[in-house]
Specification:
The complex is a heterotrimer of chains A (about 130), B (about 325) and C (about 140). By secondary structure, chain A is of the alpha/beta class. Chain A is about 50% helix and about 20% strand. In chain A, α2 runs parallel beside α3. In chain B, β6 and β7 form a beta hairpin. Chain B is extended, with a radius of gyration of 30 Å. The chains are: A alpha/beta (about 130), B alpha+beta (about 325), C alpha/beta (about 140).
Chain lengths: ~130, ~325, ~140
């Protein structure tokens, strides 16, 4: 079964992007990828995404800044933050900026899928409210 | 956010302390040498009616005697300075090490977790291929599957260590609450007793009844004492005793945890608060427990020390200021 | 006494019922759930000051629940509760930011004291984060 959720995976590690999207494809998700913040924003302008999976620490433009920009482009997009460095403070900041959830790297694909589904559910539920 | 502060403290202190050491090394020569010539002059100038030759000989003798005294004093002075220098050097090294751990761990967390994340994904992909494709029927599939699972397991182990390291480095600003330390200790020993009693380890408490209330961060202090007690249990293993004591000492609350365990050899004693130093078997204990303890206690303005008799006992002693709240609280204005 | 909001998470239905009742008698706002997952979901719609969390529960256990709670509501103080003193999970809980770790059975008045202290800490932290010279 394939999910209608459109995903964008943003991470500066090329190998992480390809393998994660393969794993997600095996779970029925179609995933676009971007290797940097600016690239992600470009893609956002051209296509609509439901859920963005976003790395916090990237050269050029950090995940927190990307998150703010993404939300400007599409306030309804749900963002799951991935980080290798989680502190209560970063969590506070990230949640305040409107991220749906955050995950610690490395992560199990099952956990990621669970979060994607929950984020997608929320997005569709909100759409129906409108 | 507090990080720059810490870096500054350790860095600057390191610098000034080093400066002091170099400066004060010069002082014995200034202190003692200037006296020596003047003493010689005074002595030789005393008119004793001796001939010039005798006078010269006496002067030499007096000079020699004074020199011996001076040299002795000088040696003493150098020795004590040397000791002071060692102490300071130790502190500098430690301060540097702490800030290095701070900086490094933040960097390492990202740098290590990213490759770990890739390894995790690859292992999960192998798992996927082995269970969902034709590879399923290959006879070595089960063995490959087992390998992939082991990779995932070890990746997780690394992840745990990195996150523990982060909790060591993370600047947790203590939240000071006025608490009864004895009560806190009662609470924790109650918990540890469940572990200790079945192993015939007796926990005794010698708590000063009128110990002043202490402004401290209760969850952080709990973490430290719990950690020390767990270490004590491990050191004793079976049939022994652990004693927790409190004592009020000149603006400080002293908390000690002693055990009748195996003791710690003198040569490794200085290293036990060092991050990643562990005597536990590989895979058990990350070597961060005591480093975290020291980090917490020092952040609250206290200090922690250890002494041990090999094969007999170990004592950890914490000195915690009774009131270490930041000054700008309401009481000041 | 200050009125604060308490969430109780424990799979022992009777225990939750009694505590909730007694806390409400004291004039506190109290809510009880029986599974970690329910607690996490409840946090989406409601705020609490203090949470009493059982360590051993079927499904999502206490430590896992604590982790998720601290992500969602970092400022909510959590007191871990256990029937069997698993000291390791105590250390783990404290490292993950729990306020305390207490053993069942605990007299109600002691538990209330713990909760009050935990709440006091939350107030101090909140006050600090409001100060302009405090960290951003």
């Amino acid at each position: 079964m394939s999910s209608p959720a459109k995903l964008l995976l943003v991470d500066d590690e090329q190998r992480f992007r390809t393998t994660t999207s393969k794993l997600l494809a095996a779970r029925g998700f179609s995933t676009a990828t971007a290797g940097s913040g600016p690239e992600a924003l470009e893609q956002m302008k051209e296509n609509a995404f439901d859920v963005v999976i976003l790395d916090v620490r990237m050269p050029e433009m950090g995940g927190v800044a990307v998150l703010a920009e993404l939300k400007k482009l599409d306030p309804h997009v749900e963002v799951i933050i991935m980080t290798g460095y989680a502190s209560v403070d970063t969590a506070k900041e990230i949640m305040k900026l409107g991220a749906y959830d955050f995950m610690l790297k490395p992560c199990a694909i099952d956990d990621l899928v669970e979060k994607i589904e929950a984020a997608y559910d929320r997005k569709t539920a909100r759409k129906q409210l409108k | 956010m507090e990080r720059p502060d810490v870096e500054r403290t350790s860095g600057d202190h390191g610098g000034t302390k080093a400066g002091h050491v170099v400066g004060s090394n010069m002082s014995p020569w200034r202190d003692i040498c200037p006296y020596a010539p003047s003493a010689v002059l005074t002595a030789s100038a005393v008119p004793l009616g001796l001939t010039a030759g005798w006078g010269a000989a006496a002067a030499v003798a007096v000079m020699a005697a004074i020199s011996i005294v001076s040299i002795h004093r000088l040696m003493q002075r150098i020795h004590s300075l040397d000791q002071q220098r060692h102490l300071l050097e130790e502190q500098i090294v430690r301060a540097n090490k702490l800030s290095t751990v701070d900086e490094l761990s933040a960097g390492i967390a990202h740098e290590i977790n990213n490759p770990l994340a890739i390894m995790a994904q690859e292992a999960q992909w192998i798992h996927h291929l082995l269970t969902n494709t034709g590879l399923r029927d290959v006879k070595e599939a089960a063995e490959c599957e087992d390998s992939a699972a082991e990779i995932s397991l070890q990746v997780n182990r690394c992840k745990e260590i990195v996150h523990k390291l982060l909790s060591l480095a993370r600047q947790m600003e203590p939240v000071y609450q006025c608490i009864d330390v004895n009560g806190l200790i009662d609470n924790i020993t109650g918990l540890v007793e469940r572990e200790a009693v079945p192993r015939n380890i007796e926990i005794t408490k010698t708590l000063q009844p009128d110990l002043p209330l202490v402004y401290t961060d209760p969850p952080l202090l709990r973490q430290v004492i719990l950690n020390l007690l767990m270490n004590a249990c491990q050191a004793v293993d079976r049939d022994g005793a652990i004693c927790v004591a409190t004592l009020s000492e000149d603006g400080y609350a002293r908390i000690s945890v002693s055990d009748s365990g195996c003791g710690i050899p003198q040569d490794i004693l200085p290293k036990i608060f060092t991050p990643f130093f562990s005597t536990k078997p590989e895979g058990k204990g990350s070597g961060l427990g005591l480093a975290i303890c020291r980090g917490i206690i020092e952040r609250m303005g206290g200090h922690i020390s250890v002494s041990s008799m090999e094969g007999a006992s170990t004592v950890f002693t914490i000195h915690l200021p009774v009131d270490n709240r930041p000054q700008e609280l309401p009481s000041s204005h | 006494m200050d009125k604060f909001r308490v969430l109780i998470v424990d799979d022992e239905v009777d225990f939750v019922e009694t505590i909730v009742k007694r806390l409400r008698d004291k004039g506190l706002e109290a809510e009880g759930v029986h599974r970690g997952k329910d607690a996490i979901e409840l946090l989406d719609t409601r705020d609490f000051d203090v949470c009493i969390l059982d360590v051993r529960m079927p499904g999502m256990d206490g430590i896992e629940t604590l982790r998720e709670m601290k992500k969602k509501k970092p400022s909510m103080e959590v007191i871990m509760l256990t029937g069997h003193g698993s000291v390791e999970s105590g250390i783990q809980g404290l490292q993950l930011g729990a306020y305390n770790y207490v053993m069942k059975p605990i007299p109600f008045k002691d538990l209330l004291k713990e909760m009050t202290q935990a709440y006091e800490r939350k107030l101090i932290e909140e006050e600090r984060s409001l100060k302009p010279d405090g960290k951003a």
